[in-house]
Amino acid sequence: MTTQLSHPLSRRTLFRGAGAALVAGGLGACAPGNTTGGDPLPSSSATEPPSGEITIWDRTGDLYKVFDKAIASFTAKYPQVKVNHVAVDINAKLPATLISGAGVPDGAFYDDALLTGVAPHLHDLSQLIEQYKSDIAPYKLGVVTVDGKVVAVPWDLDPGLLFYREDIVAQAGVDPTKLATYDDLLGAARTVQQRFPQARPIHLENDQFLAQLWIDMFANQQGGAMVDAQGKLTLDSDPYRTTLTWLDTVRSQGLGTLAKYTQPTDLQTQDNGTQVFVPWAQWFVFAPQQLLKASKGKWRATALPAWQAGGARAGVMGGSSFVIPAKAKNPELAWRLYEHLVFSKEGYTTVYGQNDVYPGGLNTSIPSYLPALDPDQPLFKTIDALGGQDLWKVAVEAGKQVPGGYTIPTWWGKAVDYFGVNVQKMLAGRMSPDEVLKTSASQIQKNLMGPN
Amino acid sequence: MATLTEAATTRRSARRVRRPRVRAAPYLFVAPFILVFAAFSAYPIFFALQLSFTNWHGAGALEIIGFANYRYLLTSPDFWQSMATSGVLWLLVVPAQVLLALTIAVALRKARFRGLFSAALIAPFVTPLVAMAQVWIILFDQDFGAVNHGLSSIGLPTIGWLTTSAGAKVTVALLVLWRTTGYAVILLMAGLSTIPADVYEAARIDGAGAWQQFWSITVPLVTRTLSFVVVIGTLTVFQLFAEPYVVTGGGPFNATRTAGLYLYKHITNSDLGLGAANSMLLVVMVLALSLASIRLLRSREDS
Hints:
heterodimer; A: D-Maltodextrin-Binding Protein, domain 2; three-stranded antiparallel β-sheet
């Protein structure tokens, strides 16, 4: 049960496994029997300037700094508002805080993949979002909608792109503009390997959580998801089978580098030319900018290949939104802040514009608010680490191709223990694609969709 | 008969007279502790026990579902795999820790600069784990780690320290050993310091060698401290969470998903009833293992 706000008033990058440490001594506050949320909230007059105090949680690191500046643009506009902006290990703290009810923030940044798990503790924002619905990317609207209710303010869109080493590809005589299908990509990997025998050109993700997220991107590209709109398990289906078969081919033919995203092996092999093709979310761009050394400036981005000729050239991997807890003290004011950050030109321009962390602007994602996605009105600058490429244009074009109708099941995070782990086994040569799908579907059905 | 009754009455009166008056002061002095204990230990334990019979997810009313959570866990391969993982880690960590700690403690007993050594030994224990875990990831990286580089440079095959089930368990165990052995050494040094020197002197006069002294004097007289070290080690291993979480994420293939990490998953997933049942089972098992360890050591002490 989400709580309905009674009347309309008026990130980043790296996904981590979610977590929540049980807050010692906080059990008294989570007395069972409390319903999530309180009475319908009073509406604020749109003509009345907002005032009051709110506590907002953002993820520790670069995004905290990005949003700090963006929040300042809100408080400059509304000086009567005081925002306590706190950097928190959100994945670890938010679930426990929502359950205990102790120290609940008025608003928090949260990963889309984990939204369904905390949905019962969030405000229903359906009425507030209604006026913006037609301007939100369909995929994004789908993932923030749980049981027919919008439970988060949709923030970013993270289209998948194909990142490649421009220098190596050129030396091998591969034309990146001709990589129209995943079969073409396999062919290109073989060509690169012939020219550079030590190369294992295609990235294979070895983190169980990220691998699941990654494969969901490929499935989303083909219009697939783990569950259909009715919540029926659709894991053992063509989109996943096609994806896993392709990945298994990459593995068995020695065309892939098995590594965990941004771990030492990953960075070293990207720098030394072992990895050449990385089909990944837009936020991969963080690595060439901040982590890679020898290959900095040598990476480029293009649209993902399609699974069939003429098919969609994009899928989504990850993404985040803003949630307003049902037990928030000042939810209306939190909504006003997020409305400013996401749906006002001033807000999203500040979020994606230049700041201390990203001097050229925040370029690890694009807004999910469609009016912000003008290819000719870039919110962030061209990127030196990509040889001066205009990533904005590439990402916006990809973002517009992302298939909608994607549903995230409530147990998505829990499925990592089954599907994510079985994919890991497949990439280690211990399971076949069919075994992964059949075993995972059976485990998920029994452990996550059964009576418990 | 009347006489007997009168006598009995007199005795009862005498007993009543002799009964000391109950004083309130002691109870007032211990009241703060009792209150704090009740609020922060007793209540959470009973609440967790209550939760373990429900399917509560953190919202709404408690719905009693009897032993369903326990049935689910006891028939779940995931639960037993997590217990087995902790068991393997216990075998890798605790005996090695006891042996290492005792050896170091005995070696340091007569060493100079003991204070300096003690500080050095406790340093890993107070080093931020996340920083150390990152170092561990770099050291044990499959392709570019210093450990595999060292192995290959002396002609030995490299090991998938973080990419194979067995390797990952060893990697986590080594981190736990590195972090906690110093603490065990400090405890054992304290235990050793209570053994009178004249016991060793008498043994020397009787012709006992160093090994005989160690085995016949040191070990028996430090058994109680060893028991404590084993219990602490057992608790550490079965509650192990941070090390596998940061270094391996419980992988590869859930090979390092310890009992603590599996319990944490339930909390993360808002399966609080299941988590509470899991923690209750964990308490029973850890208690049994600790008691068995103590009994084993005590039998050695008694003999």
